[in-house]
Specification:
alpha/beta; Nucleotidyltransferase, domain 5; five-stranded mixed beta sheet; 4 helices
Length: 138
């Protein structure tokens, strides 16, 4: 069964998806939405669940470097609860510390321009978050 990975921001949602065996995560797409309008993402996530035939989502949890939860973590926890309520889906929170830095470094290493990186970094970060979960779940 495939698993969807999500990296939630204030204006973007990065999406990644696993292969059918749940071994490899690949970046998929970045969705842009109006400032903190998370309800608008519910139909998008529902469509993704149908497209990839899944009922499991891994959502990045942005912890502080000292392992505490801050305002950004609260946003992810609230989004998790929204998805579980509206879509009847299992949502697993995965530590996402430094995933965006790692994604940016990977894209810089591939010689991608700053403009192109801006549209890809969130989906690459989502694939890193999902891959961490897949590796840990083995």
């Amino acid at each position: 069964m495939r698993i969807i990975g999500l990296d939630l921001g204030t204006k973007t949602l990065g999406v990644a998806v696993s292969d059918k065996l749940g071994i490899i995560a690949s970046f998929y797409k970045t969705y842009f939405f109006k400032d903190e309008d998370y309800n608008s993402l519910v139909p998008i996530v529902k469509d993704l669940m149908n497209e990839f035939d899944t009922n499991k989502i891994v959502l990045g949890l942005p912890k502080n470097m000292n392992n505490t939860l801050g305002f950004a973590s609260e946003r992810s926890i609230n989004f998790k609860e929204l998805l579980e309520k509206e879509l009847d889906v299992e949502v697993i929170l995965e530590d996402e510390r430094l995933s965006s830095v790692e994604a940016n470094n990977a894209l810089i290493g591939s010689d991608m321009s700053r403009k192109k990186r801006k549209g890809k970094v969130d989906s690459v970060a989502a694939s890193i978050i999902l891959q961490r979960y897949l590796d840990r779940s083995k």
